[in-house]
Structures are given as C-alpha cells and as structure tokens.
Design brief:
The protein has a domain of 105 residues. The protein has 6 helices and no strands. The radius of gyration is 24 Å and the shape is elongated. It starts with 7 loop residues before the first helix and ends in a 9-residue tail after the last helix.
C-alpha cells in the first residue's frame, strides 16, 4: 500500500493546531514536550536534505506518543470537567491518535532523504550526513604511521619528550 504524498508542513500545521488546543487544559510539560518536537519539525522543513533533522523529528514524535499517553492518563480526570476541559482533552487525544500515522509519513520522508532504520548498534555514532569533504591522504598507510617515510629517507624522526 502506497502512503499518500503529504507535505511535512501540513503535518506540522495539524499537530501545532491540535497541540495549541490541547494546551487549553494541559499545560507545562505537555506544552514543552510537544512544542519542542514541533520546533524540530520546523528544522526538518528548513533543511530539506538533512537526515538528522527529519530523524530527530521522527524520534521526537515517537517519544511524545508515550509521553502524551502518560500525561493524558494522569491528568484527564482533573481537567475534563467543563466544556473547555473536554474540548482541550479531546484535541490532545486526537493529536495522540494522529501521531502514529504521522510517524509513518515522516518515516517515509526519512527514507526518501536517505535515512536508514535507526535501530542499529552504531545509531549514536557519527552522523549520516554526506558532504563533499575529502581527506588529503589518499592511502590509509600514511594515516597509520606518518613518520614511516622519514625513516626510509634517512631523516631524523622527531621525538616527543
């Protein structure tokens, strides 16, 4: 099944709107968590070729799914008393229900940008960003022993004291 072509800006707009309405009743950590992840989404929009930006946005969306479940389950009974409380809680729940679908769409965008599945042992290692930078050394032997050529030419090898 082919995923629909959805712009990242639409995903951000929908989640921003639902988070704003959810903040009518859920404030503090709910707002900080969700708006921080939306800021990562803005970064992913601004840098269209960045694998790190879209990857961090995807990871943040997954994290906020769990955080929203915990936050809504703890505070729902105390805030959903009036009409405004029920509306805000409903929008937060709707945002939570849309996040797995958004994660699928963002993961598809992550793959289009050249990203890989982030479940591998060296995930926290060097970045996957590709640049035009090339090293000066063409051989790996020169990097392993930089003074090997000096000994072969009869020159004195510098010593560290």
């Amino acid at each position: 099944m082919e995923l629909p072509a959805v712009n990242l800006k639409v995903i951000l707009l929908v989640h921003w709107l639902l988070t704003t309405w959810g903040c009518l009743v859920f404030s503090s950590s709910y707002a900080w968590g969700n708006f921080t992840i939306l800021a990562l989404g803005v970064w992913a929009v601004a840098q269209r070729d960045s694998i790190d930006a879209i990857g961090m946005f995807l990871g943040g969306l997954v994290a906020t799914i769990f955080l929203d479940i915990i936050y809504i389950s703890i505070f729902y009974s105390s805030v959903a008393t009036g009409d405004t409380g029920r509306f805000g809680a409903g929008m937060a729940i709707l945002s939570l229900l849309l996040k797995p679908f958004s994660c699928c769409l963002v993961y598809h965008m992550h793959r289009e940008r050249g990203g890989e599945l982030p479940l591998r042992p060296d995930f926290f290692g060097p970045s996957q960003e590709h640049s035009a930078y090339q090293t000066i050394d063409s051989s790996s032997d020169a990097a392993a022993d930089p003074f090997a050529s000096l000994e072969n030419k009869g020159q004195a090898v510098p010593r560290g004291y």
